[in-house]
């Protein structure tokens, strides 16, 4: 009877401490973990053969027992108007995910995914229309960064936002592992001040993130300061209403010394009224914060039904009026320019049809 091939150990996604422990477990000195960490995350090594400061015997052993591959790059698309690039990846079990690279004047921001699909079903988001398949491993999350970094070469990734497919705080352990990797002092490319996690609102996990010691930026997917509106467009609000989340956000801000970003997709007739301005002003005045106003991007490529099919974008002149009134109330507001909507890569548009 043929023996089944032993599954290889994935080294991508292991933190520095985990790599040190692994090499100790196979009778190697701990510093081998530091060397392999450097090869994977700074030199973007694709295979063990590139790791020239490891002995040939060790490289052969690693090649037989370990793996550096967790994703396969399927296609890339580039926006003609903004240069935004979308990357389609396949996992080893043939699930598909997307990441987006957003080039700007002084930075390159990579928007990464943490789940295949999303279980939260936000009505303005194409990913929610995919449904939920599974969490990504830490290796699959970090591999999005490594593939993209190799693709763009000298144009280094300066910022990472966990705003792609999925709810990062529902894949908490893997998300934290990747933050540890990205912010480790051996990883020369990134700092915690350039990493942002976006959440739709899982209050106990927001507090757990605050207590983790990872002082990253936090963006809260708000979209209305009224529970009845959030209930309609964000079903998770029925389980974790606004007050619970605001209490958690205050805890996070105080514990980490950071300012919360409220993300606010503008939906005509739903959250762009004068009452919304008053409620948003009151909320923002209660904790250190700013508002990212986001024009609603079409999700028609996913053939939505129900309320998702009825949503309409607030006209730009109304967005400008909304923003001006908030600023007159001493609220810090930014308008996020739509980038990549011509390739379905803009905010809220990431999705793969199964």
In short:
The protein is an alpha/beta fold and 354 residues long. The chain folds into 2 domains: 58 residues, DNA polymerase, domain 1; 273 residues, Alpha-Beta Barrel (TIM Barrel), CATH 3.20.20. The strands form 3 sheets. It has a 10-stranded mixed sheet.
Strand order of the largest sheet: 3-4-5-6-9-10-11-12-13-14
Return the structural class: alpha/beta
Spans of at least 5 consecutive residues whose pLDDT stays below 50 are 342-346
Straight-line distance between termini? 37 Å
> How much of the residues is beta strand, in percent?
15-25%
H/I helix tally? 13
* Shape type: elongated
Query: What is the CATH architecture descriptor of the largest domain?
Result: Alpha-Beta Barrel
Oligomer: single chain
Structure, explained:
The protein has a ten-stranded mixed beta sheet with strand order 3-4-5-6-9-10-11-12-13-14. A two-stranded parallel sheet has the order 1-2. Strands 7-8 form a two-stranded antiparallel sheet. It contains 13 helices and 14 strands. By secondary structure, the protein is α/β, with parallel strands linked by helices. It has two domains: 10-67, DNA polymerase, domain 1 (Orthogonal Bundle), CATH 1.10.150.530; 71-343, TIM Barrel, CATH 3.20.20.70. Helix 1 crosses helix 2, helix 5 packs across helix 6 and helix 7 runs parallel beside helix 10 (242-256).
């Amino acid at each position: 009877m043929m023996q089944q091939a032993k599954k290889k150990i994935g080294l991508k996604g292991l933190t520095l401490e985990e790599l040190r422990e692994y090499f100790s477990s196979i009778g190697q000195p701990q510093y081998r973990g530091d060397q392999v960490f450097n090869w994977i995350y700074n030199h973007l090594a694709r295979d063990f053969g590139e790791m020239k400061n490891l002995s040939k015997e060790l490289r052969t052993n690693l090649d037989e027992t370990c793996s550096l591959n967790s994703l396969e790059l399927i296609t890339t698309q580039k926006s003609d108007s903004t240069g935004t690039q979308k990357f389609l990846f396949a996992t080893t079990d043939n699930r598909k995910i997307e990441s987006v690279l957003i080039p700007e004047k002084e930075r390159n921001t990579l928007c990464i995914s943490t789940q295949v699909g999303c279980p939260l079903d936000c009505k303005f988001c194409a990913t929610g229309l995919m449904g939920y398949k599974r969490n990504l491993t830490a290796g699959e999350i970090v591999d999005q960064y490594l593939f993209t970094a190799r693709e763009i070469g000298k144009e280094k990734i300066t910022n990472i936002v966990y705003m792609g497919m999925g709810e990062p705080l529902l894949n908490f352990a893997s998300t934290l592992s990747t933050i540890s990797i990205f912010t480790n002092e051996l990883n020369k490319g990134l700092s915690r001040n350039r990493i942002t996690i976006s959440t739709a609102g899982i209050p106990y996990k927001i507090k757990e993130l605050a207590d983790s010691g990872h002082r990253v930026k936090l963006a809260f997917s708000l979209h209305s300061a009224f529970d009845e509106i959030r209930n309609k467009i964000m079903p998770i609000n029925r389980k974790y209403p606004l007050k619970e989340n605001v209490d958690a956000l205050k805890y996070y801000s105080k514990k980490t010394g950071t300012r919360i970003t409220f993300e606010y997709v503008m939906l005509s007739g739903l959250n762009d009224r004068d009452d919304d301005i008053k409620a948003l002003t009151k909320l923002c005045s209660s904790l250190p914060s700013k508002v990212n106003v986001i024009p609603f991007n079409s999700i028609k490529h996913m053939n939505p039904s129900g309320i998702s099919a009825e949503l309409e974008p607030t006209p730009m002149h109304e967005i400008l009026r909304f923003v001006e009134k908030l600023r007159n109330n001493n609220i810090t507001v930014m308008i996020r320019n739509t980038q990549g909507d011509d390739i379905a890569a803009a905010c809220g548009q990431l999705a793969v049809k199964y």
